[in-house]
Amino acid sequence: xxxxxxxxxxxxxxxxxxxxxxxxxxxxxxxxxxxxxxxxxxxxxxxxxxxxxxxxxxxxxxxxxxxxxxxxxxxxxxxxxxxxxxxxxxxxxxxxxxxxxxxxxxxxxxxxxxxxxxxxxxxxxxxxxxxxxxxxxxxxxxxxxxxxxxxxxxxxxxxxxxxxxxxxxxxxxxxxxxxxxxxxxxxxxxxxxxxxxxxxxxxxxxxxxxxxxxxxxxxxxxxxxxxxxxxxxxxxxxxxxxxxxxxxxxxxxxxxxxxxxxxxxxxxxxxxxxxxxxxxxxxxxxxxxxxxxxxxxxxxxxxxxxxxxxxxxxxxxxxxxxxxxxxxxxxxxxxxxxxxxxxxxxxxxxxxxxxxxxxxxxxxxxxxxxxxxxxxxxxxxxxxxxxxxxxxxxxxxxxxxxxxxxxxxxxxxxxxxxxxxxxxxxxxxxxxxxxxxxxxxxxxxxxxxxxxxxxxxxxx
Length: 460
Ligand SMILES: Cc1ncc(COP(=O)(O)O)c(C=O)c1O
Known about the structure:
Blueprint: H1 7-15, H2 25-29, E1 34-38, E2 41-44, E3 49-52, H3 55-58, H4 67-79, H5 92-104, E4 109-115, H6 118-135, E5 143-147, H7 156-161, H8 165-168, E6 178-181, H9 186-189, H10 196-214, E7 219-224, H11 240-250, E8 254-258, H12 272-275, E9 282-285, E10 297-302, H13 303-316, H14 329-345, H15 347-365, E11 371-377, E12 380-385, H16 399-410, E13 413-414, E14 416-418, E15 421-424, H17 432-439, H18 442-455
Bound molecules: pyridoxal-5'-phosphate.
């Protein structure tokens, strides 16, 4: 039996269309109203604390209530609360942040372009890839290859690149010129008897076969998250990005790293592509760029792209792309401060130091009969629920995962189920003791979920 809904819950469902929720069931089940946050915790409207094991949406790397970030925003609000970068105007916070990004980015990035969201960053990436090829006199080289289960956002082209069915269904997506190749998930995708190296070679060959079938002269770019987030936290096998990189380089295809989740220390390096030995031609960033405190995203492009794009725009007379809020001074000031704090905390070293402890907690769960696989890198990881530990998954995907998520929320931990994978992506400032606290209720929640799954017939 559901509790009677509070007035705030009723008002929320009357006023809002909630993203990524079932609008019909939340009318009865209610929404969870979060009121404030401090450190790794958020508090609901009844004052109850939760460990925010997802940093919100992979955002709050510095946790909640960071006074320095708040002060940086307040100060910039007082000085220049809004300005833009159009038509030859600029401002110092935008420049300073771009310089700081270029210092830590892989691949000797030359220019930074700002937007407000990850979707807009990836939309910009596609427009830049098209513009670049037009600049080089290659008007046919326009197709973009992403991956099944990849997540790149929800605007028309970004959602088309996203390789998840519910982002396409009834939205009339994907649009043309966007193709999808195989997911590098060994546990789910390996053929019987296939080694990890053989699997990796086959998945890379799938990409090359697709390029050859379409014609390399028609393919502009390959886009990938170093570690797939919303596809279920998939860490690719060793050698995957080396193989992909070799193929893209041979066919003169741009490589876009979608670092929206992986960027700014999450994987133990500044960028996920550095952890996975990949040097992309451009990067998309957002989320932890400001620790989520202000909507800001950035695209960084290498010198070759910058020269071609700037040269072409010079000929046309203007670069005809830009967002009113792209490079918002408050967002950039918060980004500059976030990077200063990451450096001061030596955040990549901190993530590397807690990663084995975080991984050990997840791996310990692989002994549980309901857990099929664990995956992790740095301070992001998951355990995937599976009937009889089989990678085939449940007959009704996502139900058992949702139940597990609810069991954890009841026990004071907010994480997220992506289908039947329970994702943990806590604020990167988390300590070993707090990691222990975060995982403490998991086994009990797993047992409760298992009993529920048996009763509901999900275990066959
Ligand atoms: C890898 C990746 N790219 C892009 C996006 C889209 O970002 P936004 O929701 O800010 O548009 C997300 C969002 O989670 C993401 O995880």
